[in-house]
Amino acid sequence: MRRDSGRSLVADEEALLKQFAAQFAHGPNDADDTDAAAAAQHANNPENQAATNAEQSSTSFDTQQFLNGLDAIFDRHAAATEAGPYLEQAMVDAENAGDEAGLLTVLNETMGFYRSQGRHKDNQWIVQRALELAARMGLTTGTSEAWATTLINCATAMRAAKQYDQAEDLYHQAQDVCRHSLAPTDRRLAALHNNLSMLYSETNRPDKAELELREALRIIEASSVNPNEDIDVASSHTNLALTLLTEHKLEGAHWHAAKALDIYKTGHLEHSAHYASALAGYAQVCFAEKRYADAVAGYRHALDVIEECYGKDTDYWRITEDNLRQAETQAQAAGIDIVPNDTTDATTAPTQQAANAEAASQYSTDAPVMPTAPVSDSTATATPAVGISGLKLARAFWTQVGKPMIAAKYPQYVARIAAGLVGHGSECYGFDDAYSQDHDFGPRFCLWLSDEDYTAIGEQLQTDYDALPRDFSIDAQGHAVFSTNTSAIATDHGTPSPITPRAQGVNRRDGVFRIGDFFESITGYRTAPAQTSPHEWLMLDEATLAAATNGEVFADPTGQFSKTRQGFKDMPDDVRLALISKRLGMIAQAGQYNLPRSLKRGDGAAAWLSIHEFVNAASSLVFLINVPMVAGYLPYYKWQFAALRKLSKSMFALLPDVAEQLESVMRLSSAACYGGAGFGEGGKGSAPAIDQINGIVEHIAAEIVKELQREHLTTSTETFLEWQRPYIEDHIASDDPVLKSL
């Protein structure tokens, strides 16, 4: 194992399964190392022989030397100032050497470091590059450990940036890969369970978080030589304590928080970076117990460790310091004297019932935000369903009505039925509002079964689903509220939402489905087209793919539904590049060429249609640049700009300003196409609007070129985008003519 790097398998949120590469780089005796990226091991994977040959032919980048150098930086606690430049230079060196496996190693390490520094915007580029590189190396079609590592690191970066839908999709895909590549008791699976638990905790699903953490702890303890001195076991206890506190299971939270500190003391691990997590956790235990002096001591001790290992300029330091200040305030309010810079060792305090911090990792920045006051019970106040999002209502209806029904009537199938809300309908995109509740709105969800299970129970399960009570709403705390009439699901107009013909019969949007039937009804395909069938991918428009991959999956015990859904999100990179080329062509043709000419000749109708084509192409391009695996697809016209605005507000967004600029183009289009006097332009005519639109179009084109250059898709500075297409298509690896338009 790498020497005292402060990295822990279970707690290593951003590196996660980097142990995969360590087995190749360090040898069998280093099987517990968690720090090298999986791509290093991938170099010897016969599934990806091309990448193997590339690495063997290159002597310019030494992956092992890179990892040793990074270790040295962390060993002397110089990461805050030295790790960033070191990683950036390594990316350049690996790329110049043509070493794809080495580059993937660097990218995996960089994701973790950027996450620790709160550099979520910069991490978007790293996430995107890692996914694209893995696709180019052929990893995405297999079950290699390298692909699992990359998926989990990307998912963790997305989780840190609060992009939860994308993170969950990536985690579930990683689960499927690990299910095929690892033994059920493999310690590395604990890392995945641990990270899923964090996502569930952050999305208010503590029951699922607890299950994941207990499974992680079980795996770690079973694989440990000495669980009483194992840092990974300690981290698992720390994480579990926090989740138990959110569920008001205070006795269990107390036991696990105390157990974590016992392990650090027994194993003499107090100088580990992860010790800060256990200390901060114990401090929050004391805070919940109103033992504020001990809470202050614990947070102060934790800050000492954080400063030594990570420095002060991190989210981890700032959040923990804020927690300390709150504890000091509470102590003063309680009349407790707090000695300045008290050095009391919090680990000597009696064990308490409470919560703790999210486990610190090699690069961790996520200490828990401590509540300003102890958690207390509150009385639920019912609120009507009007204004509640469809997805939130669906999840509550599943959790509180559907799931218990299945447990009671189909206990042998509980671990085989997937549930969620995906497909057609505004609520599946999360964009529904009060105006969306005039049709097809109400408590509903989908149940997805394998062909075999559907044959056995499908029809009866549908009957039982139809019999579920629909007088269902949820209160402010998310608890079920039943009414004696349908007003609980009334619209703003006070009448129940009608079910339209398009949502009935074969077109129904909820209920029980075969997995293949469900996706076939949306896309025409029971599973996603093969990665080697670009013509089939090109026949699927983006709105169709958006409908097949939107929504939320509430439960998927076998992973089969999520795997099928993720397949539609995994657009082959050659197809993505081909579509980017097409969009560049349309932006140039409609926006840069035909629009100004139509305006000059006074053909307002032609100009208006040119603007329409330009806006659609530019909107699509933004999603394609941001990669469907990460950002999803552009939905149909009604929600096109809602989705574009949401993506643009993301910390990770590439081309984030395009949405606002496109809206400006549309706002000005009436004046530009048909004269300004009648459109609020004060009689100035169309000239000012035309000038503004032409300027915006060229500005968008220039921004696109900058992004293409940053992604190394072009070396040209030409802003007439038609001339960028050869550069893009030069990156298409396939010789299939359907992908080339030039």
Write a short abstract of this structure.
This protein has 742 residues and is mostly helical.
- Gap between N and C termini: 52 Å
Rounded radius of gyration (Å): 27 Å
- The low-confidence runs, each spanning 5 or more residues with pLDDT under 50, are 1-58, 342-386, 484-496, 677-683
- Bin the helical content: 55-70%
Using the alpha-carbon principal axes, give the shape: globular
Lateral strand order in the biggest sheet: 5-2-1-6
Find the structural class using helix and strand composition: mainly alpha
β content, as a range? under 5%
Largest sheet: 4 strands, mixed
Please give the number of β-strands. 6
Query: Mean pLDDT score, rounded?
Result: 78
How many helices does DSSP assign? 30
Which structural traits does this protein have?
single chain; mainly alpha; two-stranded antiparallel ribbon; 30 helices; globular
Structural notes for this entry:
The protein is mostly helical. 56% of the residues lie in helices and 3% in strands. It contains 30 helices and 6 strands. It has helices spanning 19-26, 39-42, 49-57, 63-75, 79-96, 100-116, 120-136, 145-160, 164-181, 188-202, 206-223, 231-246, 250-266, 275-288, 292-309, 315-333, 390-409, 426-429, 451-466, 515-523, 534-539, 542-549, 560-569, 573-600, 604-625, 628-631, 640-648, 658-674, 687-710, 725-729; strands at residues 418-421, 446-449, 472-474, 480-482, 511-514, 552-555. The strands form 2 sheets. It has a 4-stranded mixed β-sheet with strand order 5-2-1-6, with helices on both faces. It has a two-stranded antiparallel ribbon with strand order 3-4. Helix 24 packs antiparallel against helix 25. The longest helix has 28 residues, at 573-600.
